[in-house]
Structures are given as structure tokens and as C-alpha cells.
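The step that takes the researchers longest sounds almost clerical: writing a folded protein down as plain text. The outcome of that step, for a single protein, is printed below.
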Amino acid sequence: MEIPFVKYHGAGNDFILLDQRERHFLSRRDEAVVAAMCRRHFGIGADGLILLENDPEVDFAMVYFNADGREGSMCGNGGRCLVAFAHALGIVQERCRFRAVDGWHEARVRPDGWIELRMNDVGEVERQADHFFLDTGSPHYVRFVGDLAALDVGAEGRSVRYNDRFRAEGTNVNFVQTLERGIAVRTYERGVEAETLSCGTGVTACAIAAYLSDPSEKEEVIVPIRAEGGRLEVRFRPSGGRFTDIWLCGPAQRVFDGRWPVG
């Protein structure tokens, strides 16, 4: 058997996408196959793998796996790439709704090719002396630093991800530098267990943390993001300690397609 796939990336965050509307090639039991496909150098290579499946209530369903083969929590850039894939397949046009592990999401396909994905509202943010911790569909630790380029993200990220608090469940670890306009972000991702070139739920968490570090009276906040793999943007509305109408925006580009042999 061969598994047809398409590879996309969103600001360097790359994913293997499978259309499973007509035929199911993989399931949650296939951790070893998913991990082999995602493996750098020896496989296709990706930060994760996503299944596009039918859903009776919305346009499609998203099932996301981390690069280690295990089913993951919400992936923002992965969701945007899946919307671009669904658009290319003719399943959706300019607007759509889909179901992910954390519930329903809306998305828009802009004329310039950027995909805008509505994230779930955020109601609780833990603020400590040297970091923030919040869940934007996936858990994120956020620390502000002075020189992002000089940071050893792998070592620093692992020290947080595997500390006593987070070792069991894991967390994504983000490091943020404030820019003249917006922020720069680097992220260590659990499940990949390394730095990725961008992280959608991560930059969303960082944008909210940046606002809390320097709040304004604006009804809508727009935060330009510089990730290692490209530019992103996060928009949201702060209201009484809650954050609503959150949109993760950025490019989603097709890289190549192929077939993966199994058995």
C-alpha cells in the first residue's frame, strides 16, 4: 500500500497532510508510521502530520499528530495549512468551519494567500515573576528575553519542558523579544522536542503575553510577529481579563506531494 500525501508549511512550521474523506490510510493506532513519515532525513520530514476527514456538522475535521507519532493538542499553523489544503481540493471557498481537538474553528482564505484562523477564547493567564503560562489550544510557557538571537532555545526549552512541573504532560516553551513594531518569537515544541521555525498557538500566546506586559486601551489589538520561518500576525480583543475574537494570520504554502510506501 502507498499513502498519498501533500506537504505544506506555515512560516516554516511544516506538516504532512492526508485527505481521508474517501479512504482511511492512518488511525490513532499508527504511531510508528506517523513518526517514520515525520522523521527528518529518513522520512518525509515534518513537525507533524494532519488528517483531513469528513464531519457531518462542519466542512471537515482535523486530526493532528505530533512528530513523535502521538495525537496532539491544537496546532494553529497546522490548522491554517489544512484550510489551504481544503481550499486547493475545492472543499471550501473563502470561508469555512472545521472541527479540531479543541472544538470548532472558523477560517478565511485571503486573496493574497494568507490564511486567517480563529482561535478559541482565552480566559486564564498565569503571570509569574519571570514568565507567563496560558493555554491557546495547547499549553504555552512564555518568557521575555533581551537577545533572542543569542539564546540556546533547545537547551533552555528542554530545561523548562522537563522540569518538575511540566515533565509529565509537557509544555511548549516560547522566548520573546520586544521589537519596535511587534515581537520576535522562538519556540521549543513538545512532541517535536526541538525548536521549530514557528508555532501558531505559541505566537498567539506570546501576543497575549506582550499585551499584558504593556496593556493599551485599544478595542482590537494587532501584533505583528517575526518567527524564525517568516511573518505572522495575531489579532484579538481584550475584555475584562479575557481575550476574544482571536485570529492567527499568516501564509500557508504547498511544498510538494508524493506517496509513502507501507508494508
